[in-house]
Amino acid sequence: MERMDQARARMWLSTAVAEARAGLAEGGIPIGAALYGADGALLGRGHNRRVQDGDPSMHAETSAFRAAGRQRSYRGTTMVTTLSPCWYCSGLVRQFGISRVVVGEAETFHGGHDWLAEHGVEIVLLDDPECAALMRDFIKDHPALWNEDIGE
Amino acid sequence: MERMDQARARMWLSTAVAEARAGLAEGGIPIGAALYGADGALLGRGHNRRVQDGDPSMHAETSAFRAAGRQRSYRGTTMVTTLSPCWYCSGLVRQFGISRVVVGEAETFHGGHDWLAEHGVEIVLLDDPECAALMRDFIKDHPALWNEDIGE
């Protein structure tokens, strides 16, 4: 797999940001994700659904993974997420052999992306100011909800 | 939290085994799980739903976690599973601070339970012959489906 260029990473991130904004508009936690295939096709997209569905298992990444349905292999796929993936979502990436993770930002929450890099996953960290602002504002306004979502 | 006695662990495992058997009867992958509260109350139970719902995100443990709904804290809870948890489900346990994992067997699949133990999770490994037989038979009859479920 060739290394990703930043322009494509930012284009794909915009799909995840649109999901995060949709979640926010629904009164939810503003984290979005998208799973892209090895050929660049969008396989699935989604956002955190804790508030909307009362479902703690649907983080942004698991939601995008679920939307992609059954896949025979995740080789060459890219998980794009507005926020550094928590251990739950990092475990998803490792178990299923997702090849690359594009991370919008890891400033408001530092999840398992270093661990994934150690285990051979390509990490593209974008330090995106829009992603960081979305989370910073949300955490300030809803600290208890955010802590619930990360088990703290 | 006091250490778990084996009689209680085996009693709780029977709930997970019943889930695994229900999944098998539906034509699915025979892995079941249950989440118990600190007070011993059953919070949620479920089984792998890849085949039944075409949903790769519903492993047994995530299914039980989902069925338990939103919880403010997982301190003192126990995840009981018929099979050693994969990285995805191990990440779930670590992220949400689930205190203990009862594992039916780790012979047919060795997941992340050692990693969890290193990170302070109490692991009760039961080496249950019924759990092992369920998986051994399933893997023999449906190797491709099993490999799909663990991303291999």
Automatic annotation (TrEMBL), chains A, B:
Coiled coil: none annotated. It comes from the Bacteria. It holds the Pfam family dCMP_cyt_deam_1. Residues 7-123 form the CMP/dCMP-type deaminase domain. Gene3D superfamilies: Cytidine Deaminase, domain 2. InterPro entries: CMP_dCMP_dom, Cytidine_deaminase-like. PANTHER family: CYTOSINE DEAMINASE, CYTOSINE DEAMINASE FAMILY MEMBER. This is Nucleoside deaminase.
